[in-house]
Amino acid sequence: MEMKKILITGGAGYIGSHTAVELWNAGLEPIILDDFSNSQEEVLDRLEEITGKRFACYRGDCNQRAVLDQIAKDHQLEGVIHFAAFKAVGESTQQPLAYYKNNLGSLLVLLEFMREKGIFNLVFSSSCTVYGQPDVLPVTEATPRKDAESPYGNTKKIGEDILLDYVKSKPGIRVVALRYFNPVGAHPSAKIGELPMGTPQNLVPFITQTAAGIRQKLTLFGNDYDTPDGSCVRDYIHVVDLADAHVKALSFLFEKPLDFYDVFNVGTGRGNTVLEVIHAFEQVNGLKLAYEIGPRRAGDVVKTWADTQKINAVLGWYPKYSLEDCMRDSWRWQQTLAN
Ligand code: UD1
After folding, report:
1. Which residues of the chain have pLDDT under 70?
2. 203 C-alpha vs ligand 1 centroid, how far in Å?
3. Contact 157 CB / ligand 1 (< 6 Å)
4. Who has the most CB within 10 Å: 215, 261, 321, 333?
5. DSSP 136-152
6. From atom 21 of ligand 1, which residue's Cα is the shortest distance away?
């Protein structure tokens, strides 16, 4: 039987590349579209080393119909996973139009494309940022969303709204939005992982770059919050577990009637403080990390973690990796970069 082909926009990126591997492992064939604005073509070689398969890859922007049409000409697509987006919170406050155009323009182009070509299944990358600072923890999917703190966050919120409105109009499509908590870690093979451009804004790449000597020290943004040790709490999810959630979401969609929309949290259900992350990193890798306590970061959520009962029960998805696994794999990946 021919494998079902799935278009992965942003498929050479951090989460996209790991999802390509998990799709392949599950008997689905990834077709990658990427503009390589925040990824490298070498990822294709790495994916081939891991899977033994050279995935079809198109260079292009999701806002351009021409490249999508070319892909549809070459391949019969059964679904799309839409990762391609800008994701830097700070940058989005400086360049809001670029964020709205790239993140939402591409979604509109993609939906039109899917309707015209009769592609019925879509998984959309959303974020726990849509909850802001939740009033009640853990956060369930029914927790009300809050006003976005940044244009980036707003693109995720509006993206969800567009999809829900669209499905309500009965265009004949099935959609799952996945709200990611904090993706970290790397493939256990250390062949793919996160490739932050410039100075990392996120915690774990900053930790691994500090341990590798690329950064002098990590600044912990605030230790006087109302949390067990005063530092912020997040739900850190291994990127391979997150990738697997996309495979489960697609299989779930294949079985659903048309004009279907649903949303799932993807997290571990466990909150960890920044200090706990640092200590897990030190302990599992036998290293001491240079860090200092700095002021709070503007706009930081104090604590958030996922209620995962819905994704556990409905998709049959459970995380397999611990925080220690995340820290071990992130560091192994960093070491391949430093060499
Ligand atoms: C951030 C965004 C989130 C977005 C995600 C995408 C904010 C408020 N949230 O998540 O909307 O979806 O990135 O990548 O910007 N930390 C330090 N020192 C550092 C870096 C981080 O102490 O050098 C702390 C932060 O204060 C936070 C935790 O580490 O408590 C995690 O930070 P980060 O990795 O940036 O993720 P989020 O802020 O959760």
Report:
1. 1, 338-339
2. 6
3. no
4. 333
5. SSSBPTTSPP---SSHH
6. 203
Residue 89 CB partners (closer than 8 Å, separation 6+): 149, 150, 152, 153, 201, 299
Q: Which of 272, 277, 306, 314 is nearest to 131 (CA)?
A: 306
Separation in Å, CA 115 to CA 16, 75, 109, 192, 207: 23, 16, 10, 33, 43
CA-proximal residue: ligand 1, atom 8 (nearest):
300
* Residues that are catalytic: 152
pLDDT for the residue 2: 81
| Ligand 1 near 87 CB (within 6 A) | yes
Q: What's the Rg (C-alpha) of the chain? A: 19
Pairing relationship of beta strands 272-273 and 233-234 according to DSSP bridges: antiparallel
The pLDDT assigned to 1 comes to 66
Asked whether the CA dihedral 205, 211, 215, 217 is positive or negative, the reply is positive
Q: Where are the domains of the chain?
A: 4-184+236-267+307-320
Q: Determine if the peptide bond prior to 228 is cis (ω within 30°).
A: no
* Greatest CA separation for the chain: 58
The rounded Å distance from CA 202 to ligand 1 centre is 5
What is the third-level CATH fold of 4-184+236-267+307-320? Answer: Rossmann fold (3.40.50)
Q: Which of 300, 305, 327 to mutate to test the pocket of ligand 1 (most atoms within 8 A of CB)?
A: 300
Q: Ligand 1: does its nearest atom lie under 6 Å from the Cβ of 318? A: no
Cβ atoms 130, 180 nearer than 8 A: no
> Structure tokens of 93?
């406050």
- List, in sequence order, every beta strand (DSSP E) within 185-326: 218-221, 233-234, 236-238, 260-266, 272-273, 291-294
| pLDDT tens-digit readout, 123-147 | 999 999 999 999 999 999 999 999 9
